[in-house]
Amino acid sequence: MFIKIPFLCFLLLAVVSSLSVTDAKAHNAPERKQLRKLSHFNKEGVYFSNLANGTRLNKVTKLSREHYEITISSEFIPTNSSSFFAFQLWADEKKTIKISLKYTEYKHRYIPKLSEDGLIWRPIKGLILSESDTTATFDITLSSKKLWLSAQEIESSEHTYEWLDKFISNKSYIRKHSVGKTVLKQDLFVVSSEQESVKPSVVLIARQHPPEIPGGVIAFKAFFEEVMGVSNLAQNFRKEFNIYAFPLLNPDGADNGNWRHNSNGKDLNRDWEAFTQPETLAVKNFVIEKVKQENKSIWFGIDFHTSYNGPYLLILNEENEQMAKTRIIPRLINNINDQTPIFNQYRRRDQDLPYCYNWFYKAFGSEAITYEEGDETDRSIIKARARLYAKSLMQQMLLELKLK
Ligand SMILES: [Zn+2]
Fold first, then answer.
1. C-beta separation of 96 from 137 below 8 A
2. How far is the CA of 106 from the centre of ligand 1 (A)?
3. From which residue to which does any coiled coil extend (predicted)?
4. How many Å lie between the centroid of ligand 1 and the Cα of residue 90?
């Protein structure tokens, strides 16, 4: 007990302090809805832009000739501290300036990353946080070449679909089609490999939460490429199982640089009981149709995310694990632990919450996991881990089929 009391006090303090910050600022809210524009300081020859999709910058203020304050707000509050920012910046001539990222609510979270081409990113050095962690200050050297500065790698819907279309272009066994529209009337795509005679199926869901690039984009892509790839294992797997993948469930949020929500200000991963949003409803209708009309059987669901204290997998609680119609997760865990030096952690969580992975269990008796990566985990490890999980899951699902 003596461990729990200080921890409770800490929790209480954290809640009280976060409430007071939010309340105080809520009455004096800045423009949370970001205006898309080029902010230029002609005398100094310094430029900032949030015109590209996937960016987030609410306001630029010149504090001095060499110091610029970037105001960052979440489109909707309350939210969690997924304090996402992204923009481009450059100067007429080479110069070093000071940048302060100032968050109107919540705290700094992600290490700022720089890129010249949007592909290769490097973390900035020498970050100084204010006492309350609401402002992050650092130096940056500009030139006439535009730089990206972002909380995580920039990934708009266009980036995801460009990768997807390229990957599937020479694979006739993969089909991509729209199953509905988002709040802003963007297409919601499902990408599938299926055969009429095959009934067992797996469903993959990615990026309900826009800033969660490590799990929602990097891990998902590597996992998808493995299960949809040309290895013998993947080919054998697809003879026995259908795959239905939703590569980007929140394109509106991704394009608008949202911290958490869809364009209605709803957290999609809390909507898997009420289904009030078009994005979650489209998945539900599609999967239920597959089960009812085509007699498909959902064996496994995976929902890709990223957490401050990841990587880990959220798995079913012990009771539900026993009740599920298959026994894949325990063997998957043993198999991964046996064959890899890569750190793996598993957590069980309350199965009454309206999370996506709980819906798979409740609606179909399926095993399901929430796949969480870490904010700053080495990207090559994220890819290696995802490939390993994909291979191991395919092996264990094929084994389950044999044992049944
Ligand atoms: Zn998430």
1. no
2. 17
3. none
4. 32
Ligand 1: centre distance to CA 212 (Å): 6
- In the reported structure, the alpha carbon of residue 149 is separated from the centroid of ligand 1 by a whole-number distance in angstroms of 22
- Supply the CATH classification number for the domain 28-150: 2.60.40.3120
* CA 61 to ligand 1 center in whole angstroms: 31
Q: How far is the CA of 305 from the centre of ligand 1 (A)?
A: 4
Greater pLDDT, 237 or 349? 237
Q: Which two tokens mark 64?
A: 């001095």
**Range 157-403: architecture per CATH:** 3-Layer(aba) Sandwich (3.40)
> How far is ligand 1, taken at its centre, from the CA of residue 373, in Å?
10
**Cα of 371 from ligand 1 centre, angstroms:** 9
Q: Among residues 327, 319, 337, which one has the least CA distance to residue 300?
A: 327
Which position has the token pair 């970037």?
70
Q: Give residues with Cβ within 8 angstroms of 87, minimum separation 6.
A: 48, 49, 50, 55, 56, 57, 70, 148, 149, 150
pTM of the shown model: 0.92
Query: What are 128-181's pLDDT values in tens digits?
Result: 999 999 999 999 999 999 999 999 999 999 999 999 999 999 999 999 999 999
pLDDT digits (tens, 9 = 90+) for 229-276: 999 999 999 999 999 999 999 999 999 999 999 999 999 999 999 999
- Note the pLDDT tens digit of each residue in 100-122: 999 999 999 999 999 999 999 99
Measured CA to CA, the distance from residue 177 to residue 247 in angstroms comes to 12
CA of 75 to the centre of ligand 1 (A): 17
Distance (angstroms) between ligand 1 centre and the Cα of 209 equals: 5
Compute the distance from residue 316 Cα to the ligand 1 centre, in Å: 17
Which amino acid is residue 65, in one-letter code? Answer: R
